[in-house]
Write a structure and sequence with these properties.
The chain is an alpha/beta fold. It contains 10 helices and 11 strands. The strands form 3 sheets. Strands 3, 4, 5, 6, 9, 10 and 11 form a 7-stranded mixed sheet that branches. The chain has a two-stranded antiparallel sheet with strand order 1-2. Helix 1 crosses helix 2 and helix 1 crosses helix 3.
Length: 328
């Protein structure tokens, strides 16, 4: 018995004979002579180890096995015919998979905008999204387990040669504080507290809720620098790795937190966001990916991100060539 795998040519011949129920008509439809067609069908039957047709001098009919096999063969041929357009779509970045991680801060401003625009332009691309701290994203990138990540700058210097970075958005820090504390920190009862600046000096005794430094060293240092510039040494009361948890702890009266301005979109009962009276300190969120490993799908996403960055004024010159911006 022939143990080889059927080829597409044999399968097309099988469908033609099954539909025409006549070798001569099938051969004419295929623009070939009948003997090679008959030989090809016999070779297919030998390969499969079954009879596909019951033959007489006047007719040819599908056997029960051939009748059951016909729809499966049609599906195989349709899938094979779809390979070329699929390959071209993949090459153009119109189809495929993009694995993207993001810091929790991006979920309240930047990320939804990027996903909306990318989805509108690349509806056939399947997104695999994961929330992760910047340090975890860097390790996942270096290990090749994700395609790109939205992180808080700066990047670890030890990975500078492996990664490319594009700054996307800069935003000031605001302070998230329990509502009762906000009232005591200089906000009159008839004012919208969210518009009233507050000095860190007025909150010197309030515990600070913050990311652990080992997980977000860049963000942690920015916050500590903000206190240092005010001549203060904060007392860390609680640590949490997700922004939602930090704000929830503030809501519970566990302390105050310095958070990106976009976190105003995360509303919690009992939490007030207020601008700082000091000179605004900003944090930078950017896109990072492995240098030299840009798939067509990733290239399409980078194009979307670059457009947003340019609109926000975050990109100046060849920003992607600087993997460690800010010098913080």
């Amino acid at each position: 018995m022939n143990s080889t795998v059927p080829d597409l040519r044999q399968l097309r011949y099988f469908v033609a004979v099954a539909e025409e129920q006549h070798f001569g008509r099938a051969a004419a439809r295929l623009s070939m002579t009948q003997p090679p067609l008959s030989q090809a069908i016999r070779a297919l039957e030998d390969t499969l180890g079954v009879e596909l047709f019951a033959r007489t001098r006047r007719s040819v009919e599908l056997t029960p096995v051939g009748a059951d096999l016909l729809p499966e063969v049609r599906r195989l041929l349709a899938a094979a015919e779809a390979l070329r357009p699929l390959a071209q779509s993949l090459a153009r970045g119109e189809a495929g998979v993009l694995s993207l991680a993001f810091v929790s801060t991006a979920d309240y401003g930047l990320l939804p905008l990027l996903l909306r625009d990318f989805g509108a332009r690349h509806p056939r691309v399947r997104l695999q999204l994961a929330e992760a701290t910047s340090d975890v994203q860097i390790e996942e990138l270096v290990a090749g387990r994700i395609d790109a990540g939205l992180v808080i700058a700066p990047l670890p210097p030890r990975h500078a040669a492996q990664l490319s970075y594009l700054p996307v958005a800069r935003e000031p820090l605001v302070i998230a504080m329990p509502a009762e504390l906000a009232a005591r920190a200089g906000a009159a009862a008839d004012l919208d507290w969210s518009d009233v600046p507050v000095s860190l000096g007025d909150l010197a005794d309030a515990p600070l809720v913050v990311f652990p430094r080992r997980l977000a060293p860049g963000f942690y240092d920015i916050i500590m620098d903000c206190y240092g510039a005010a001549g203060l040494a904060p007392r860390v009361g609680q640590e949490a790795i997700q922004m939602q948890t930090i704000v929830s702890l503030v809501s519970a009266g566990m302390g105050v937190a310095l958070v990106p301005q976009s976190l105003r979109n995360l509303r919690r009962t009992g939490v007030v966001y207020r601008p700082l009276a000091q000179r605004a300190t900003t944090i930078e969120t950017g896109l990072v990916w492995r240098t030299g490993e840009v798939s067509p799908v990733l290239a399409g996403f980078i194009e979307i991100v670059r457009a947003h960055a340019a609109k926000a004024g975050a990109v100046k010159g060849d920003a992607a060539a600087n993997p460690n911006p800010g010098g913080r």
